[in-house]
Design a protein that fits this description.
Blueprint: E1 11-13, H1 14-21, H2 25-34, E2 41-43, E3 46-50, H3 51-60
Antiparallel strand pairs: 1-3, 2-3
Helix pairs in contact: 1-2
Length: 71
């Protein structure tokens, strides 16, 4: 059994998932309401994200390259 503080835990809270994705918590909640964010589970009145789904979300994000105008 692993403790709650392990970095490799399977389920992350919304706050942890937002930090993992480098997003604001409100942005992640907005994505959830629009159905465009990573898959999540509602357990009771709490939302959890599986680490695997966060990885899939990162992998599916389009790559963006900086142009000279962005610098």
């Amino acid at each position: 059994h692993m403790g709650n503080n392990t970095l490799e835990k399977r389920f992350l809270t919304t706050i942890e998932a937002a930090a993992y994705l480098a997003l604001n918590v409100k942005t992640l909640a907005n994505y959830r309401s629009l159905g465009i964010g990573p898959a999540h589970r509602k357990i009771g009145n709490r939302i959890f994200y599986e680490r695997e789904h966060l990885e899939q979300h990162i992998s599916s994000a389009p790559l963006r390259f900086c142009s000279s105008a962005d610098r």
